[in-house]
Amino acid sequence: MQSREEKKAAKNAWLKKRRAAGICTQCGIQCGKGLCENCKVKARPYFKTSNAKRHDARLEWGRTKAQKDKIIVFTHYGNRCMCCGETTFEFLTIDHSERNGSLDPRCHYQGPKKRVRITGGRWYAVIIKLGFPSDLRLLCWNCNHAEHIYKVCPHASKEPSDG
Predict the structure, then answer these.
(1) What are phi and psi of 113, to 5 degrees?
(2) How far apart are CA 6 and CA 34, in angstroms?
């Protein structure tokens, strides 16, 4: 009895042989390519629904994987803003404590024409793969943005404000 791999290899060899001979892989008539026009027309609705289902499943898997990675990263870094103590999950974000995020080579990969920034779910996966670097920290969006714009967060200044 053949194993699954052997069956798959035999079928692939059979399909390759048929394509090389110019025979339709479905109905067996001479057509000069993989599928004849009749078989293509019959298969088209199946491929459209099948590809759409696979695409949706891949997107859903990516979303859940990114969400799981985000939870792992946030849990490791304490689930709270290092500056003000905010704990609302949706407000938290990763920050470079040395303010070097745009220069950090871990945040980029080389695309075909230029460096591309790693963001979103990929960034959380990279953090996990790197073993949770110590130069990263968890801040709420307000503190992160304030540090970016004003170089210091208002929570960090101990002076009372004149209100």
Answers:
(1) -120, -25
(2) 22
Cα 153 from Cα 95, distance rounded (Å): 13
Question: CB under 8 Å to 83, separation ≥6 — which residues?
Answer: 139, 140, 143, 153, 155, 156
Using CA atoms, how far apart are residues 80 and 89, in angstroms rounded to an integer? 8
For 22-54, write each residue's pLDDT tens digit: 888 778 888 777 778 888 777 776 666 667 777
Token pair in block for residue 19: 């394509």
Find where tokens 């960034």 sit. Answer: 123
Tokens (6 digits) for 42: 């019959």
Rounded-to-integer distance, Cα 13 and Cα 9, Å: 6
Helix, strand or coil, per DSSP, at residue 114: coil
Say if CB 94 and CB 136 are below 8 A apart. Answer: yes
* Contact criterion met (CB below 8 Å) for 65 and 121: yes
Q: Are 96 and 135 in contact (CB under 8 A)?
A: yes
d(CA 65, CA 136): 21
Query: How many residues are listed for the chain in this entry?
Result: 163
Which residues lie below 8 Å from residue 79, measured CB to CB, with a gap of 6+?
Answer: 87, 89, 92, 138
State the chain's mean pLDDT as an integer.
81
Q: Which long-range contacts (CB under 8 A, 24 or more apart) does 43-47 make?
A: none
